Amino acid sequence: MSEEKPRIGILGGTFDPPHNGHLHIAELAKKHLELSEVILVPAARNPLKRRAVQATPKQRLEMCELAIEGEEGISVSDIELTRGAPSYAIETLEEFQQVHPGQYWFILGADSIRTLPEWHQIERFEKYARFAVFHRDGTHLEDAAASLSPEIRGLIDEVAGPTINISSSKIRESVQAGAGYRHWVPGSVADYIERSNLYR
Questions:
Q1: Dist. CA 113–CA 109, nearest whole Å
Q2: Could you tell me the pLDDT band of residue 50, with boundaries at 50, 70 and 90?
Q3: Are strands 156-159 and 129-134 parallel, antiparallel or unpaired?
Q4: Most exposed residue of 73, 143, 152, 175, measured as fewest CB within 10 angstroms of its CB?
Q5: Taking a C-beta distance cutoff of 8 angstroms, is the pair 187, 70 a contact?
Q6: 163 with 136: CB under 8 angstroms?
Q7: How far apart are CA 187 and CA 63, in angstroms?
Q8: Over the stretch 110-150, which tens digit does the pLDDT of each residue have?
Q9: Cα(54)–Cα(17) distance, rounded to whole angstroms?
Q10: Is 2.60.40.10 the CATH number for 7-165?
Q11: Quick check: helix, strand or coil at residue 76?
């Protein structure tokens, strides 16, 4: 009898900075899909985002590592930072499947799935992973998925549960304005932002 492959979630993003919303999403996906692990994967550069990040790749990785301290079943990988820009999800999945074979889910917000047809080699995803999609910013999964092909819609699993409305851009703006932001991020990340004088 073959051993069942581990169930693993991948949560990618710029994580500039990582915040409590990211950790909440990871926990939601872990619980709903019975995942053994969720891996945070900071992107070298998102090919669909033109804005330059504010923190360096090394700083974003270090903040992710601080954010998950004490969080069971959540880890961080530098796989995309090591590979370099741009960051294509299909290449990340291929590498993970080679070194750590498993059942993979790529975790996304419903507001992001409209861009799936633009993803690099999206037609190959079925071989490597499914999509775990949660509601965000008032976007409903049914509406967002309406324009997708049946093949892509067939790879989507909905993650139920309330999300926390936090964005990294709002945190950066708050730091720059000297406003309060520490309630949005783990204390260790807030200390790192202060210590490194980020987003000023």
A1: 7
A2: low
A3: parallel
A4: 143
A5: no
A6: yes
A7: 11
A8: 888 888 999 999 999 999 999 999 887 666 777 788 889 99
A9: 9
A10: no
A11: strand
